[in-house]
Structures are given as C-alpha cells and as structure tokens.
Specification:
370 residues; alpha/beta; Glucose Oxidase, domain 1; Rossmann fold; 17 strands; globular
Length: 370
C-alpha cells in the first residue's frame, strides 16, 4: 500500500515497523519515548503540533523513533512552555516525517492486517522522483530491514542519567523515605518513571545493560525497577538473567512494559508478538481484586503468554480491550509486574498504585533487616 503526502521533517528516507498511537495529546512524549525505536509512528489524532515542543517534555535524552506519520501539522503553535515548533523539532532531531495522508485508512489497514514494515521516502537531492524508480528504490531498502522481532534494541536506547530526570523537578523532602534506594535497570527508561519514584520519596540510581548483578550490592539497592523499552524481550538475555538473580535473592522488583516481559521470561514464561500491539493513552484496565477500572497509557507490541502463570502468580490486572495480562504479583516473592505505563506521559496516571504496592514491599524488607 502506498500513500503520497508532504514532508514535515528532514530529507532522505526512514524504515521501521509501522504502528499507530491513539493518544489525543502528548506527541512530544511519544516522539521521545525509547520504546518506539525502529518504528514509524502513526498518530491517529488528525491535528498535531499546536502546542509546539520544549525540553521539559522529553521522555529520553534524545528521540529514538524512525519516523512520524500524521494527517496534518499545525502551521502555528501557542503554549507558554513552547520553545520551538514541531517542524523545527523534527528537523533538529533528524526525523523523517510525512503529513497529508489518510491516517484513518492506514490505521484500518494495520488493524486488519497487523503491523507492517514500511518506509517513508522524501524527494531530495539524492532521491529524484522524476528520474528514479521510487517503488524499486523503496522495496530494495525495505527488504534489508530485519524488523523488530528476534533482536535486542535496548543497547540502542539506554543511557538516561539521573541528572536528565531532575530537570524542573523539585523533590519534596517531607516525602523522603529513608533507605528506599531503588535501582532502575535501564532498558530504555522514560524520564517520568524515574521522576515518579523520586516524587514518591525514593533515591534512584540508574544502571544500564551489562551491569553485573554483584554490583548492586555496592549500590545499596533495596528494590529494582525493570523499565520500559523497545522491541522483542526474548533476545535480552543479560536482562533476563539479571531478573532471575534478583528474584532468587528476594529483592523487591517491579517490571514496567518491557520490564514486565523480562521478569516473565526470567520466571520461565513466554512472550508472543501481537498483531498491532497496544499504543495509546485511553486503554481500559481492570483491577481483578477490586473491580476498579483504570484508563491507562500503553505502548507495547509483545505480550506475556499466561500459560502456567496461574501456578506461580496472582493475575492482578487485565486489559478490557483483549483480556491480555496487564499485571501480576508473585505468590512467594515481592515481585510485581505491569504491562502498561503507570507513570503516563503521555496519558493518565490513575494507576500509580502499582508503584505504591512495590514501595510497601520495600518497606517491609527494610523492617525485616533492621
């Protein structure tokens, strides 16, 4: 399927898995979410860019997506926090983008046929639509793209620092929790996960892939968060091994998004590729214990196969869209996992209780060790 439109970013071409996000707001957080590495993101909301962009709303130290697909870009922006237009943001970050295509038609095609690999080609000095066979040009380059299955992408997106997360953040000293040192295993972590933990009174230390498990003892960690991140979880063998060791040691653990899947694989579970995934800020999730329904932010293309999980875990949350596992806690260990994004950004933060349950388990462990 081919769409013709207008360029809204840099010249050249971009290749990735084409997905769609149904969020109405938060386009800058989406653009800077590391979980979109190697993906072309389609925004279903038709009018994008009206509030501009600013450094504060970045969810990572840089953008990671391959390209952007929208219906229409705003020609002006109005917001007291804005420092540049979306167009300038795309060019400054080297992002290829396209507008004025039928995003509804594209979305319906993806919903029916599943996420597909795609390419955005922009006519430029090196790419002449008049003299070149653009279909052949696109197909040749698209055929070289391996997709996101079977390859670890976390090394491409990790690197957020604690300093990146303190921008515009003033911790409340009255909420400081003594001894609550949380280690964030960076699989492509979003800033707001770290900011939420700091806001809840934790001291946070970020470590990247390749960190040895023995090193966490010198860091004094009382709990570990396995963060969100991009792509297929199964090739992330180092992270899976790290999770296995943490669970064996009885360290309170929380997995978010990709981290949820990493913990699941560490427990002997399996993950499967979804047809179109969950990407948006309006996904209903039910707490199976209380019956309470939350509207959540979601961004994942793989899901945990719940076979045998009932033996070792209590399933705590399910998606009301397709019934897939959204959360669980182990029966015999202080381990929690949630498939969505309790930190939001973009989207609601209704389900921040996920963090609270994790922190309660840390507090209980600290009391035992006194």
């Amino acid at each position: 399927m081919r769409f013709n439109g207008n360029s809204i970013g840099v010249d050249g071409f971009a290749i990735g898995e084409v997905v769609f996000n149904t969020s109405i707001t938060g386009y800058q957080e989406i653009l800077s979410d590391p979980s979109y590495c190697n993906q072309l993101v389609t925004l279903t909301y038709p009018h994008v860019g009206n509030v501009g962009c600013n450094p504060i709303d970045m969810e990572s130290f840089k953008t990671h997506l391959s390209g952007l697909i929208i219906k229409q870009m705003s020609t002006s922006y109005h917001n007291h926090r804005a420092e540049e237009s979306l167009q300038d943001f795309l060019i400054r970050n080297g992002i290829v983008g396209i507008e004025n295509i039928d995003t509804r038609k594209l979305t319906l095609h993806l919903r029916k046929n599943g996420a597909k690999n795609g390419i955005i080609v922009v006519e430029s000095g090196d790419i002449d639509f008049g003299s070149q066979d653009i279909e052949k040009f696109a197909q040749e380059r698209l055929s070289s793209f391996p997709g996101i299955t079977g390859k670890s992408l976390i090394e491409q997106v990790s690197g957020l620092t604690e300093e990146d997360c303190f921008r515009e953040l003033v911790p409340n000293p009255e909420r400081k929790k003594e001894g609550f040192v949380v280690l964030v295993y960076d699989l492509g972590v979003k800033r707001n996960i770290v900011k939420t933990l700091i806001g809840l009174g934790c001291s946070v230390k970020i470590v990247g892939p390749g960190t040895k498990f023995d090193d966490i003892r010198t860091l004094g960690a009382s709990g570990i968060v396995f963060s969100n991140g991009p792509g297929d979880p199964e090739p992330c063998t180092e992270a899976i091994k790290f999770a296995q060791l943490a669970i064996k040691e009885g360290i309170p653990c929380l997995g978010i998004c990709l981290g949820h899947q990493i913990i699941s694989l560490g427990l002997g579970g399996k993950t499967v590729k979804m047809s179109v995934g969950h990407h948006g800020a309006n996904h209903p999730v039910v707490n199976l214990k209380t019956g309470k329904i939350f509207i959540t932010s979601q961004n994942h293309g793989f899901v945990v196969d719940e076979q045998r999980f009932a033996e070792i875990a209590d399933i705590t949350h399910r998606s009301l869209f397709d019934g897939t596992i959204q959360g669980y806690r182990l029966k015999k260990a202080p381990v929690f996992a949630f498939q969505g994004h309790p930190e939001g950004c973009p989207g609601p933060q209704d389900i921040e209780e996920i963090f609270e349950d994790f922190l309660i388990s840390i507090g209980q462990k600290i009391e035992v060790l006194k």
